[in-house]
Amino acid sequence: MIIEYQDVNYKMLSKYMLNYHRLCDWYINRPHNVNDLQYRNICDVVKGITAVYNNSSLLKQQVIKLTWWDKENLSDDVICDIIGIKQRALLRARTSILDRLSSEIGYV
Questions:
Q1: Do 59 and 85 form a contact (C-beta atoms < 8 A)?
Q2: Which of 6, 24, 89, 95 has CA 20 to 30 A from 64's CA?
Q3: Inside any domain, residue 29
Q4: CATH number at residue 42
């Protein structure tokens, strides 16, 4: 079995997920100081996050909402209690979501 090493910057992808709503605003109302390359990158990220969210299971949608989009900054323990999963399952779900996002937006 061949295992490919995928160098994914999880911090950057997590930052994209965290700033999704701001990126959506930029996607809809393009700021004047954003050039075409930056705007195309914003479009790819917004469309990628939307696709990942829409194609995810309800459990992963809850993970996305509670981890990145909820403004209360919940701890991992609280998120696990709300959803009813173990912390290791939460970490696997986050990793899976970010891996799908990286493949969706073509992140290298």
A1: yes
A2: 6
A3: yes
A4: 1.10.10
- Cα distances (angstroms) measured from residue 68 to each of 1, 2, 7, 29: 34, 33, 22, 22
State which residues of the chain have pLDDT below 50: 1-5
Are 104 and 51 spatial neighbours (Cβ–Cβ below 8 Å)? yes
- Identify the burial level of 77 via C-beta atoms within 10 angstroms of its C-beta, where 0-12 means exposed, 13-18 middle and 19 or more buried: exposed
pLDDT digits (tens, 9 = 90+) for 6-21: 567 888 899 999 999 9
Q: What angle do CA 90, 48, 99 make, to 5 degrees?
A: 40
**Cα–Cα distance measured from residue 18 to residue 67, given in angstroms and rounded to the nearest whole number:** 8
